[in-house]
Amino acid sequence: MNPVDKVKIGELFVEFRKAREILEELKETTVEKVVSHFEKHGAAKYFLIVAVEAAIDIYSHVTSAARPAKGLRRHLSHHGRRGNFPDELVRELEKVAKLRNLLVHLYGRLDDRKVYDILQTWLDDLDRFESCVQRYLGMVPYKVC
User: Fold this and answer.
1) Which residues lie closer than 8 Å to 88 by C-beta, 6 or more apart?
2) What is the pTM of this model?
3) Which one of 32, 38, 51, 111 is CB 3.0 to 4.6 Å from 19, fit for a cystine?
């Protein structure tokens, strides 16, 4: 088993939290402003990509210490089955990985209002993800995720 590089995890969480903070500000904006203002809409997409990439990198790094990397989906299912992360969160991370592909690779058009809906619903999952990783690493032993 490879040791987890907590410095690397910390660096990734800095980027994750910066993106999360900006997304929270955008969440408070009206749907009309996010959809109709190119800058806000572009910022929402960009910082969703940053947050998702950071989450995927954090998850992959943490879980590869417990098992060699064989792809995100295998990591998700393996650690979900072992109970390291709650099943519901593992399913959300699978959705997040798909969202990342939609945003980055433009696999089909992502509806502008869908981006706003994601802002309204997904930010709590980001917080939960961070809590789970901290608990998994023993950084916050009693934190519920």
Assistant:
1) none
2) 0.82
3) 51
Which residue carries 């939960």 as its tokens?
128
Amino acid identity of residue 142, one-letter, is Y
Written as one letter, the residue type at 139 is: M
Cα distances from 103 to residues 40, 96, 130, in angstroms, run 15, 10, 22
The answer to whether the Cα torsion of 45, 50, 55, 61 is positive or negative is positive
Please state the φ and ψ torsions of residue 56, each to the nearest 5 degrees. Answer: -65, -45
Between CA 132 and CA 144 the distance in angstroms is 7
Measured between alpha carbons, how far is 66 from 1 in angstroms, rounded to an integer?
A: 5
pLDDT in tens, 102-133: 888 875 577 888 889 988 988 888 888 888 88
Dist CA 70 CA 101 (whole Å): 18
